[in-house]
């Protein structure tokens, strides 16, 4: 349990494990980020994946039915989709009921609450199963104080949503700890919370209290301690910029890292909106972030190069670094470029 100022506890989650990851009928990897994140960062907790007809996304795990996964020891079906609006569509209902009837608890990071569906609530009660919603912020979150807190903070920001802010924060926290730096990953979204066991579901907090929630997420800490905070959305996203700004103001980052995906040109899930340039994101983040931390600075760029081979990724990293004048690295590929990014974070 992580004790926070003002009497708040970010309780460690005790989830039934291991998991069967439910991919629904997803056809876009960006909307399956919960399953992908768990498969990449908590593979020992994942037995397999379960997709409906029409699903074209995979987390690279064995494809299992609920019955097969239950026989292998899985205890919870985790909804691995993070779609627009966090909805649970009707076409998923039979599969979710099947999982309950096979003896699974259901774990969801969606905005829609599992118990709000009468059929799920009825079958869960009948089978003695749990319906667990991750996006449940604590009650009584205060408005932000704007008070400068002790310790050091790094925030990942992005040119868009679902392109690597969580992965970058996890990798940087791991990289700092490997250097002997006292560092914690601070989760601000459903997948990160499932991985870390605690956090603040920022996009479920009432807007007046977003910055206050971010202050709770990253409290006072020893002078040399780093909180590496998972970013949300984008300051340039027409739907999610509010969450991004509240997190920026409340986290008061000393350092931020801009996350970008090679090849993405449009805002995910919103037609007609082009992606901002990385330079625009740096400029806007500094301008807005100075409200609560006048010393905020950009350390570099985290580049998602999953669409490129190793040679192409290295060339793009070098090109972008020369163009922008910042260290650029893919936190999944690591290597010397990632070491240079860590150096810049600590500078």
Structure description:
It is a single chain. Helices cover 32% and strands 17% of the residues. It starts with a strand and ends with a helix. α1 (33-41) runs parallel beside α6 (190-196), α3 packs parallel to α4 and α7 crosses α8 (241-251). Residues 1-6 have low confidence and may be disordered. With 347 residues, the chain is of the alpha/beta class. The strands form three sheets. The protein has a six-stranded parallel beta sheet, with helices on both faces. A five-stranded parallel beta sheet has the order 4-3-5-6-7, with helices on both faces. It has a two-stranded antiparallel sheet with strand order 1-2. The protein is built from eleven helices and 13 strands. β1 (2-3) and β2 form a beta hairpin.
Helix content: 25-40%
> Helix tally?
11
Query: What is the ordering of alpha helices and beta strands?
Result: EEEHEHEHEHEEHEHHEHEHEHEH
Mean pLDDT, as a whole number?
94
Strand order of the largest sheet: 9-10-8-11-12-13
C-alpha Rg, in Å?
20 Å
Weakly predicted, low-confidence segments: 1-6
What sort of overall outline do the alpha carbons produce when their principal axes are compared?
globular
Residues in β-strands, percent: 15-25%
Would you tell me the structural class of the helices and strands?
Answer: alpha/beta
């Amino acid at each position: 349990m992580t004790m926070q100022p003002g009497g708040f506890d970010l309780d460690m989650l005790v989830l039934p494990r291991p998991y069967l990851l439910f991919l629904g009928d997803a056809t876009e990897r960006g909307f399956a980020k919960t399953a992908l994140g768990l498969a990449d960062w908590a593979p020992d907790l994942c037995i397999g994946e379960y997709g409906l007809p029409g699903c074209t996304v995979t987390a690279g795990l064995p494809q299992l039915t609920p019955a097969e996964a239950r026989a292998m020891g899985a205890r919870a079906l985790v909804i691995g989709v993070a779609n627009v609006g966090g909805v649970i569509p009707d076409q998923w209902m039979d599969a979710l009921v099947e999982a309950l009837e096979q003896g699974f608890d259901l774990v969801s990071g969606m905005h829609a609450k599992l118990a709000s569906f009468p059929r799920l609530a009825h079958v869960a009660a009948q089978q003695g199963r749990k319906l667990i919603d991750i996006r449940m912020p604590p009650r009584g979150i205060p408005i932000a104080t704007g008070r400068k807190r002790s310790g050091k903070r790094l925030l990942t920001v992005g040119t868009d949503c679902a392109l690597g802010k969580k992965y970058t924060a996890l990798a940087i926290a791991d990289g700092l700890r490997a250097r002997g730096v006292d560092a914690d990953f601070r989760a601000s979204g459903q997948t990160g919370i499932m991985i870390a066991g605690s956090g603040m579901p920022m996009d479920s907090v009432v807007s007046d209290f977003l910055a206050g929630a971010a202050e709770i997420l990253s409290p006072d800490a020893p002078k040399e301690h780093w909180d590496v905070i998972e970013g949300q959305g984008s300051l340039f996203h027409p739907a999610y910029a509010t969450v991004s700004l509240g997190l920026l103001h409340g986290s008061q980052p000393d350092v931020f890292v801009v996350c970008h995906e090679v090849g993405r040109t449009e805002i995910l899930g919103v037609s007609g909106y082009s992606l901002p340039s990385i330079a625009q994101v740096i400029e806007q983040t500094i301008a807005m972030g100075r409200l609560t931390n006048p010393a905020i600075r950009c350390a570099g760029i985290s580049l998602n190069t999953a669409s490129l081979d190793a040679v192409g990724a290295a060339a793009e990293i070098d090109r972008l670094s020369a163009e922008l004048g910042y260290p650029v690295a893919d936190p999944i590929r690591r290597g010397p470029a990632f070491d240079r990014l860590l150096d810049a974070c600590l500078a």
